[in-house]
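Need residues for this backbone.
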């Protein structure tokens, strides 16, 4: 399964912010939209990723408030990025290695969406459930042998 399959299922809602916005603005958008990340865009290019992790770290660093901190000062300037053609196993491995919960999806310089660790986990569970159903149907419909013998286990 590829990232494009996930984006097709999840839809194309995309939330972005500029580096010049305040962290207060960013946290407000994240709370209002019930999302865990914002892609940081400057002049049409992805320049970073802001997640609840960076928001909390910035608030703690500032004594429990956002103060006048900008998105630029809090964002991750080097987020993991994948393409629609990236295999989900590769996304899962990259996310686990970097402890990343969100990954922008880029295609020829254009932001296509964001894949979350939740999306990856849901895909794994859905795939396992589908395979489980197929296996149960196969076992249920196992062809009987005419002589009553148990078929060989190949």
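Answer:
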């Amino acid at each position: 399964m590829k990232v494009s399959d996930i984006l097709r299922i999840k839809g194309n809602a995309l939330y972005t912010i500029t580096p010049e916005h305040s962290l207060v603005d960013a946290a407000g958008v994240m709370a209002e939209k019930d999302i865990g990340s914002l892609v940081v865009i400057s002049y049409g290019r992805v320049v970073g990723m802001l997640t609840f992790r960076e928001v909390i770290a910035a608030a703690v660093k500032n004594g429990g408030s956002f103060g006048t901190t900008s998105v630029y000062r809090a964002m991750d300037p080097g987020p993991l990025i994948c393409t629609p053609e990236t295999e989900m196993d590769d996304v899962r491995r990259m996310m686990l290695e970097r402890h990343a919960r969100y990954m922008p999806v880029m295609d020829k310089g254009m932001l296509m969406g964001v894949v979350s660790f939740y999306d990856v986990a849901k895909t794994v569970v859905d795939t396992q459930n589908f395979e489980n159903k197929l296996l149960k149907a196969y076992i249920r419909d196992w062809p009987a042998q005419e002589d009553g013998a148990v078929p060989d286990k190949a």
